[in-house]
From TrEMBL:
CDD domains: TM_PBP1_LivH_like (cd06582). It is found in: Cell inner membrane. Signal peptide: none annotated. It comes from Parathalassolituus penaei. GO terms for cellular component: plasma membrane. The chain crosses the membrane at residues 6-28, 40-56, 134-158, 187-208, 220-248, 260-278. The keyword Chaperone does not apply. This is Branched-chain amino acid ABC transporter permease. It is a multi-pass membrane protein. Its main location: membrane. GO terms for molecular function: transmembrane transporter activity.
Length: 286
């Protein structure tokens, strides 16, 4: 069971990367991106296609895809989603839902429906012996360290930088923030740019650790959404710990029966919604 919990924590590291971008966009704009999971899949397939074309090291793809995601996220928010932000959340939901459908169909047309994986040169099968019979994968450890670094970086940015204060200002009182000189459209666009960068990172790691297929997006969105809700809105560390909780719950389910893993995660999500709607780790200061 100890090994099961360890593997659950490692899986939670991947889920936290799925969830951080979603948490950022919702926290700043109160916007739920329905296409979030599909964008993770797109990033994975882009990494696979580029690696196959130019035979590049998978980790060097981060230096290529993350800046591209930063630019595309800024442009998408500035020219599309900013026109839908208001008191009614329906327009942004409709647009991102439509984008999700388009993305899934385009990926199937281009790559077919077959699952694919990014070749890591054997890194995804390397293990580290922790003593006794407990062995953990090297790649999941790298993903967990990256997730911790991203979570710390986001929380620090919100608490200690001018950009973070801008995010908090437009989130709390948009009209007052604009009277003080902030351009909310640009602030929202920066938030989405950072969220898309996290999505690109998550997609690359997903394709390294396992396979991706064009229809995986809704499932990945669900895992990200559950992580955010379990952790509690308003805290990136809460999102991180929520992802850990979901990962451990799924691994415990897999421990008892291969068909129970995902169901155990959903069960924990429902129980937390029923008994602690604000999440396990609600909004904290700093």
């Amino acid at each position: 069971m100890i090994e099961t919990v360890i593997h659950g924590i490692l899986l939670g590291g991947l889920y936290s990367l799925f969830a951080l971008g979603l948490s950022l966009m919702f926290g700043v704009m109160r916007l739920t991106n329905i296409a979030h999971g599909d964008q993770i899949v797109i990033s994975g397939f882009m990494g696979i296609a580029i690696a196959a074309a130019v035979n590049i090291n998978p980790f060097l793809l981060i230096l290529l895809l993350v800046p591209c995601a930063l630019v595309s996220g800024y442009a998408f928010q500035y020219f599309v989603l900013n026109r839908t932000i208001g008191k009614d959340p329906l327009p942004s939901l409709v647009i991102t839902f439509g984008l999700s459908i388009i993305a899934q169909n385009l990926l199937q047309e281009i790559f077919s429906a077959n699952p694919r994986a990014l070749d890591t040169g054997g890194l995804n099968t390397m293990g580290l012996n922790l003593g006794g019979d407990t062995v953990v994968g090297v790649l999941p450890l790298i993903i967990l360290v990256c997730a911790i670094a991203c979570t710390f970086g986001l929380q620090w940015m919100f608490a200690h930088t001018a950009l973070g204060r801008s995010f908090r200002a437009v989130s709390d009182e948009k009209d007052i923030a604009e009277l003080m000189g902030l351009n909310s459209a640009r602030v929202y666009s920066m938030a989405t740019a950072i969220a898309f960068s996290l999505v690109a990172l998550a997609g690359l790691f997903q394709s390294m650790r396992t396979t991706v297929s064009p229809t995986d997006g809704p499932n990945l969105l669900l895992f990200a959404f559950e992580s955010v809700i379990i952790g509690g809105m308003g805290s990136f560390w809460g999102t991180f710990l929520g992802a850990m909780t979901l990962g451990v719950a799924q691994q415990v389910g897999f421990h008892f029966d291969p068909g129970w893993g995902i169901w155990f995660g959903h069960l924990v999500f429902i129980l937390i919604l029923a008994f602690r709607p604000s999440g396990l780790f609600p909004k904290t200061k700093g």
